[in-house]
């Protein structure tokens, strides 16, 4: 295995460990999703050998190619983390174990239909546009609770968590308020017990994952810091 990738992953785990300690949780409770947007298959195999088994895919077509090439590795969990067009719902349900970026009822309807056809529950996370940036996807903060209520009609979707993408900032500390706000929404939903499968809080990337973990993230999406 490449010593460089191995060393990067070890360093990421150290940093997550320190952040988790501040949050008072076990580092083992933080899932690292290796985002493969720029990764080659040999690099992904190196990551797999390091012990990471969760891979993030930004685009469906790239994911289809990579899942085919790594079909023999049944231990991999494939996360679709990017925006999804409704006409790709079947590919999502067929190819990826969990979808992070649900952002419309129309897409929920399509995913539910494909999951029903496949006779399975499909785990999804709701993407929330906490920063309210016009260029970002996600449910607006003011629409969040009504959106969740509407999702209850889709019996083949398993509402498993929340996700957000913080604004690009020079200082990771600038992401903290956004992560803290999403954690607040996450805790509110958990307290209501209306969504018993809600367990993942996906926030934080290469630039700000430590702050995200300190604010309660239990899923971090890391690409550049692993693959450069």
Can you summarize this structure?
With 228 residues, this protein is α/β, with parallel strands linked by helices. The protein has nine helices and nine strands.
Describe the structure.
- With 228 residues, the chain is of the alpha/beta class.
- It has one domain (3-227): TIM Barrel, CATH 3.20.20.
- It is 42% helix and 18% strand.
- The chain is built from nine helices and nine strands.
- Strands 1, 2, 3, 4, 5, 6, 7, 8 and 9 form a nine-stranded parallel sheet that branches.
- Helix 4 packs across helix 5.
- The mean pLDDT is 96.
What is the strand and helix layout of this fold?
Blueprint: H1 3-23, E1 31-35, H2 41-50, E2 54-57, H3 60-69, E3 77-80, H4 89-95, E4 98-102, H5 105-117, E5 122-129, E6 139-140, H6 144-151, E7 157-163, H7 176-192, E8 200-202, H8 209-214, E9 219-222, H9 224-227
Helix pairs in contact: 4-5
List keywords for this structure.
alpha/beta; TIM Barrel; nine-stranded parallel beta sheet; 9 helices; 9 strands
What is the CATH level 1 assignment? Alpha Beta
Total beta-strand segments: 9
Q: What proportion of the residues is helical, as a percent range?
A: 40-55%
Number of structurally distinct domains: 1
Named CATH topology:
TIM Barrel
Low-pLDDT parts are none
Spatial shape: globular
């Amino acid at each position: 295995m490449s010593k460089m990738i191995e060393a990067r992953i070890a360093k990421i785990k150290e940093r997550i460990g320190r952040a988790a300690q501040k949050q008072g949780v076990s580092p083992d409770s933080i899932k690292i999703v290796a985002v493969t947007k720029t990764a080659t298959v040999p690099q992904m195999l190196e990551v797999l050998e390091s012990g990471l088994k969760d891979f993030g895919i930004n685009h469906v077509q790239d994911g289809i190619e990579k899942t085919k090439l790594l079909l023999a590795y049944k231990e991999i969990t494939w996360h679709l983390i990017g925006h999804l067009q409704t006409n790709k719902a079947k590919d999502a349900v067929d190819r990826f174990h969990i979808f992070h970026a649900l952002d419309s009822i129309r897409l929920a309807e399509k995913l539910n239909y494909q999951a029903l056809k496949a006779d399975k529950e499909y785990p999804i996370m709701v993407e929330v546009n906490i920063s309210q940036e016009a260029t970002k996807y996600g449910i607006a903060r003011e629409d969040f609770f009504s959106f969740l209520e509407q999702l209850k009609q889709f019996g083949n979707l398993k509402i498993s968590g929340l996700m957000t993408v913080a604004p690009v900032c020079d200082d990771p500390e600038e992401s903290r308020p956004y992560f803290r706000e999403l954690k607040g929404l996450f805790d509110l939903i958990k307290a209501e017990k209306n969504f018993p499968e809600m367990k993942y809080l996906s926030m934080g990337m290469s630039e700000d994952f430590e702050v995200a973990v300190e604010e309660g993230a239990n899923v971090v999406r890391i690409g550049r810091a692993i693959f450069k």
